[in-house]
Amino acid sequence: MAEPHEDYPAVLTDAHGRTVRYLRISVTDRCNLCCRYCRDDSVPFIPHENILRFEEIEKIIEIAVTLGVHKLRFTGGEPFARKGFLDFLIKIHRRFPQTALKLTSNGTLLAPALDTLKELGVSVNLSLDSLDRAKYASITGKDVLPTVLDNMHRMLELGIPLKINAVAMRGVNDNELPALAAMAMDWPVDVRFIEFMPMGDSTIWSNNLFWPAADILESARRHWRLEPVALRRKDGQGSEGHTAEERGPAKLWKLITPEGQVSKGSFGLITSVTQSFCQSCNRLRLTAEGNIRTCLFDDREYPIRDALRDKGEEEVRRIMIDAVSRKPVGAEILAASNGPVAHKRMSAIGG
Ligand code: SAM
């Protein structure tokens, strides 16, 4: 995987002194699953003609790279629900070999792509909220857990760098913490619980469902001794853990059994709600219809699709720089809100 380059330009710098290095691209808002916390069937998909074409996404990546972006994550919707996505990924890898490529996926459609993902060095964040087949089906709307687990095992066999993300929901998957976290015992994966974010007008989010990170941590401590994973320095010295860049916003711990057995992977928390990581946020999002979004919690979006089609790349560059200069501190938006923080649901933004 490519390491960040110190000599990349720092053009995308905001008013809080943060520099954007990381572009998350929603390649489609369509998904073959319908996770209850993420989207609902009543919201229509974006019409095809309004979705960015792959050549347009490639152009926007090229511009972003010249502005200092060195890490790309493809998400959605489900990236593999878009026809031609794998070929697009191959093309992006060839054109931008120094750029780290990452993928967020529900894992259902990965089978034909796995060898290529390995070859390209793409790392995968797999969304997996339950290991109970009936519950998985009730959360996602599809009885496909065995397929996801097959693909997960295949990724582990191939040595594809893998993180597992579970949206933490009290009364839904809190009783599965031991089973989900135990995957980190046996395999070199980070199993991260993400605090349920109150996104979207029709979200099912409620205080009752919200399971805060402090409580998740306490639950984990009932099963294991937890030892914080130290960060590895970029020069490879120090502990065997991740660099700050690889770790992202997760807090990570090794799990240690009462018998002293140490987990191969790590247990993690993404505390998007109770403990923000806004001060180190280096992200920018590109929505499927071609809007720049600077913060999950901020509904302001900056359209670049038509600018690219009608005015060209110089205008896109200008809009990107301007958007980043207005990047807010998401935690302040969250603190000021009593209800959902964003109008759109995650499936329409690209989680
Ligand atoms: N389809 C892909 C997948 O399932 O991973 C990518 C898109 S999905 C929107 C990206 C991530 O957003 C998933 O890990 C999902 O669990 C997470 N997510 C969606 N809504 C969320 C919410 N309200 N709070 C926290 N995480 C959420």
SSE inventory with pairings:
Blueprint: E1 22-26, H1 54-66, E2 71-75, H2 85-95, E3 100-105, H3 114-120, E4 123-127, H4 133-140, H5 145-158, E5 162-168, H6 177-186, E6 190-195, H7 213-221, E7 225-228, H8 244-247, E8 251-256, E9 266-270, E10 283-286, E11 291-293, E12 301-303, H9 305-311, H10 313-325, H11 330-335, H12 346-349
Parallel strand pairs: 1-2, 1-10, 2-3, 3-4, 4-5, 5-6, 6-9
Antiparallel strand pairs: 7-8, 8-9, 10-11, 11-12
Helix pairs in contact: 1-10, 9-10
Residues 31, 37-38, 75-76, 78, 104-106, 127, 165, 167, 194, 196-197, 199, 346-347, 351 line the site of S-adenosylmethionine.
Q: pLDDT average, as an integer?
A: 93
The helix/strand order is EHEHEHEHHEHEHEHEEEEEHHHH
Count of DSSP E strands? 12
Kindly report the spatial arrangement of strands forming the biggest sheet.
Answer: 7-8-9-6-5-4-3-2-1-10-11-12
Query: What low-confidence regions span 5 or more consecutive residues with pLDDT below 50?
Result: none
CATH level 1 class label: Alpha Beta
Small molecules bound = S-adenosylmethionine
Q: How helical, in percent, are the residues?
A: 25-40%
CATH architectural category: Alpha-Beta Barrel
- Multimeric status of the protein: single chain
Indicate the overall shape: globular
Which characteristics define this entry?
TIM Barrel, 12-stranded mixed sheet, alpha/beta, single chain, binds S-adenosylmethionine, 12 helices, 351 residues
